[in-house]
Amino acid sequence: MATTITLTGAGGQIGYALLFRIAAGDLLGPDEKVRLRLLEIPQGLKSAEGAALELQDGAFDLLEDVEVTDDAAVGFDGCNLALLVGARPRGPGMERAELLAANAGIFGPQGRAIAENAADDVRVTVVGNPANTNALIAATSAEGVPAERFTALTRLDENRARAQLALALDAPVSSIRFVPIWGNHSATQFPDVSRATVDGRPVVEALSERVGDVRTWLEDAFIPRVAKRGAEIIDIRGSSSVASAANATIEHVRDWVHGTQECTSAGVVSRGEYGVPEGLVCSFPVDFIDGNWRIVEGLEIDAWSRARIDASVAELVEERDAVRALGML
Description:
CATH architecture of the largest domain: Alpha-Beta Complex
């Protein structure tokens, strides 16, 4: 039986980068048939329809069906996996409250449509920013769907952190392990290297031989570079991250479906772990087991790390409260 995958913002660049990898089996594997539902706003339908034609021309053996629609009820009908990519970007002069309100107007109705139309086993990954709070809005609006079925993408931040460590240590990125992201997918995020390893050796120990004062390097170079990488790419490329965001989405969903033996990062609903207020969608170190995510508990956090995590969580609380004040939560 084929898996039905709904992709919002399917006519956009990230959607385009995702579609052909999903159809080729990169998401679910070489034996899993898929049906694609491309959900767009009316202005984006032509682009999504063009992508659908290209999917046909790709003659993908795993692709059973493609449907393009601007009707959320149709787009989420029978959906097993929802990738919520489409979001309102922050425009010039736009205040945060305006951005949150605009996205609440998108993700609230999508959450309701998921609750009313998706399959009982639906799993939702929010990619569109502000991803954590958009996931909270969608989950809150999806009455009857467990909040644990909603996640926000922070795998891209983890990938960026691992890549920067690999560059600093002149090591293959595959040798870098356990670099979780805490908090919000924003400039306040905290990429945590305290337990990271390079070929089994503590990263902090290896860094001390190359950068000297590790804490200074983390504060002045590493953390800002990871947190502002998206802005750096926009400045150099002229547009936002596309292929790397699509790749991180593929990895996130693939791990959620098939499981992973290693800790990774995801924005998931808090039940009070590590002092994060219950109900926030916050990035934690997680693993995926039997189709469910699990926050890795029992990690010791020093005062320096705690302060950075708390600052990012405080931003999430501000976003939640701003949306709540608008009557959208």
